[in-house]
Amino acid sequence: MFRYLSLAGMTLILLPSTADLAVAQQPEVAKGKILARSYDFKEAGKKMEYSLYLPTSYDKEKASPLIVALHGLGSSARAIIRYPGFTSHAEKHGYLVVAPTGYNSRGWYGSRGKGGGRGEDPENLGELSEKDVMNVLALVRKEFNIDQKRIYLMGHSMGGGGTWHLGTKYPDIWAGLGPIAPAPPRSMAGLDKIKHVPVIVVQGDQDRLVYGARRWVARMKELKMDHQYIEIEGGGHVDVAYKHFPELFAFFDAHPKGAVKPTTTPEPAPEPVKLTTTAAIEEAGQHAHRLVFNTGTGSNVEYYLHVPDGYKGSEKSWPMILFLHGAGSVGEDLPKIKRNGLVRTLASSAEHPVKNFIVVSPQSQRRGWSTRILNGLLDHVIKTYQVDRQRVYLTGLSMGGYGSWSMAAAYPERFAAVVPICGGGNPATAEKIKGIPIWVFHGEKDTVVPFSQSERMVKALEEVGGKVKFTRYPEAGHDAWSETYRNPKLYEWLLEQKLADTPAEKE
To answer: For 254, phi and psi rounded to 5 degrees?
Structure first.
C-alpha cells in the first residue's frame, strides 16, 4: 500500500459535550507558533495529541475563522500542519488551524466504517478516528472565539476521504470543504446532503486517484453545487497538497456560511422600508446613506452614493456603477471603504471620468457579498434616482472581484458590463454570463488572490464564446485596482456598453 502525505481537513460538528472531555494541562497559548497539545480521550483510554496554530492577529473579542485539517495515510497531525506555506497563509488570512490525529495514522476518520482495525488497532478504529476529530473540534470551539459561519474542513489523501465523509455526515456545520487529492468514499449518496456547501477540489492528473475525483466533481456539476475543481497538469499525489494553498484560502475567504445558496435561482430582493441620509440626495458629490430592509432580522446596508455635477435639476438619466470593496473594508465603519477603489478615487480626484457616473458603494458587514442584499439595494437606487437602466455597470476588487462574478451570475440581465479585479468565480457560470461584456484585471504577482483565479474564468468564458477582455499586469501584486480605476479608457469602454432591452420596472 502506498504511503501518502495529506493535506488538512476542516471540521465543524455538533460535537460531543465538552464535559465529557478531560483536557490535559496545556502549554500557554502562544500566537504565531505551531503548538503540540493533547487531551484525555476517555473512550480510547489514552491521551490524544493534536496540533494547533493560532495567528498573531487572533483577538478573543472577535470571532475568527477555523480550518480543521485531516492528515493522510501514514502521516500525522504534526506533518500536515507543517506543510510548506500552510501556516503562513493561515497567518496572512487570520485563520486558526487545528490538526487532529484521528486516533492513529490509518484511522480513515470513519470513512470506511466503524471497524478497519488491523494488528493492534481496535476493532472500532474508524469510530474512534471520527470521534477524535469531533472531540478536538469541540475543545477548540470551547477555548477560542470561533466564527461559526466560517468553519472549514479540509484534508489530503486519506484526509480528503475523511473530508467527504465528515462533510456529508455533518452538513450543517461546514462553511466549505477542501478535499485535496482525496481518496473518496465509494458512495456519492452523501453529496445530496451538502448541495448548499461550497467545495474546492485540488487534484493532480498523474495521481491514480484522479479518476475518483473526476467522478465526484461530475456529480457536483449535476447537482449544480458551487464548486471549484483544479486539476494540475503533471501533478502527482503529494505536490498538489502544498502548492495550492493560495487557491484554497481564497476560496474559503470568498465563502462564509450562508453566502452561497443551494440553487442558482436568486431569491427575491428584500423589501426596503426605510431610508435615512446624511445629506440631500440631489446634492452633487459622495454622501453616506443607510438602507434598512424588512427581512425580520433587521438587515441593513450602509453605502456611499455619488451623484454627478449637474444632477440636481436635470431630467436626464445617468449611467451608474455598483462598486464592491475588498475584505480589508469589511465591518460597520463606512469610511473604511474610502481607502481603496472607486470610493477613494471619487474622494481624492478633483476631475475624473468616474465623477460623471452615479456611483453606489455599499459596505459588507461580513466577509463575502450577499447577492440578495445587493439586488435589493440596486432595486432601491434605480427606483429612487435618475439611473439609466440600460447603463448599469458592476465592478469590485479582491473580495469585491469575487462578488462581481457572483452578482453577474445571479442577475446577468441587470448589467451592461462587469469589471472584476483580482477576484475569482465559478467557471460553471460562464454560460450564464457569456452575453455580458466583461473586462478582467489581475496582477500576475498577486500573492493574495492567485492570478489563476481570473485566468480560469477568462478561459471558461472564451470556451463558450463570451465577450471577455483580459488585462494582465506582469509586475503588479494584489493592488491591480489603483491603475485600473485611474485609467480613463475604462470609463470610455463602459459607456460603449449598453443593454439592448431593459426589463420593465417592477411596481
So the answer is: -85, -5
- Between 395 and 8, name the one with better pLDDT: 395
- For residues 280 and 212, membership in a common domain is answered with no
Q: Report the helix count and the strand count for the chain, using DSSP H and E.
A: 14, 18
Asked if residues 311 and 284 have their Cβ atoms less than 8 Å apart, the reply is yes
**Which residue, chain included where needed, has cell 498523474?**
206
Indicate if 249 and 327 belong to the same structural domain: no
C-alpha cell at 61: 473579542
Residues 339, 210 share a domain: no
**How many CB atoms within 10 Å of residue 239?**
16
Residues 6+ apart with CB under 8 A from 485: 341, 342, 345, 354
- The domain that holds 87 is classified in CATH as 3.40.50.1820
Q: Are 8 and 69 in contact (CB under 8 A)?
A: yes
Cell 458629490 sits at which residue?
Answer: 285
Q: Check: CB of residue 411 under 8 Å from CB of residue 269.
A: no
Distance CA 431, CA 69 (A): 34
Check residues 277 and 220 and name the one with the higher pLDDT.
220
Q: Which residues of 7-46 are buried (b: 16+ CB within 10 A; e: fewer)?
A: bbbbbbbebeeeeebeeeeeeeeeeeebbebebebeebee
pLDDT of residue 334: 86
Q: Residues 53-95: pLDDT tens digits? A: 999 999 999 999 999 999 999 999 999 999 999 999 999 999 9
- 492 vs 348: which has the higher pLDDT: 492
For the purposes of burial, counting CB atoms within 10 Å of the CB of 347, is it exposed (0-12), middle (13-18) or buried (19 or more)?
middle
Give the domain-ending residue among 225, 253, 281.
253
Q: Which domain holds residue 68?
A: 18-253
Name the band, by pLDDT with cuts 50, 70 and 90, for residue 20. very low
At 349 the pLDDT is: 67
CB-count exposure of residue 91 (10 Å: 0-12, 13-18, 19+): middle
Domain co-membership, 282 together with 202: no
262-271, 328-337, 350-359: which has the minimum mean pLDDT?
262-271
**Count of the separate structural domains present in the chain:** 2
Domain end among 253, 281, 301: 253
Residues constituting the chain: 507
**Percent over 90 (pLDDT), the chain:** 54
How confident is the prediction for the chain on average, in pLDDT? 84
Contact assessment for residue 325 and residue 341, using Cβ atoms and an 8 Å cutoff: yes
For residue 2, being part of any structural domain is answered with: no
Instruction: Check pLDDT > 80 for residue 5.
Output: no
- 470 vs 458: CA distance, rounded Å: 7
10 vs 99: CA distance, rounded Å: 9
Tracing cell 427575491 back to the chain, one arrives at: 268
CA 133 to chain centre: 24
Grid look-up 483536557 returns: 23
Please check the confidence at residue 279 and state whether its pLDDT lies above 60: no
Kind plus residue range of the DSSP H or E element containing 279: none
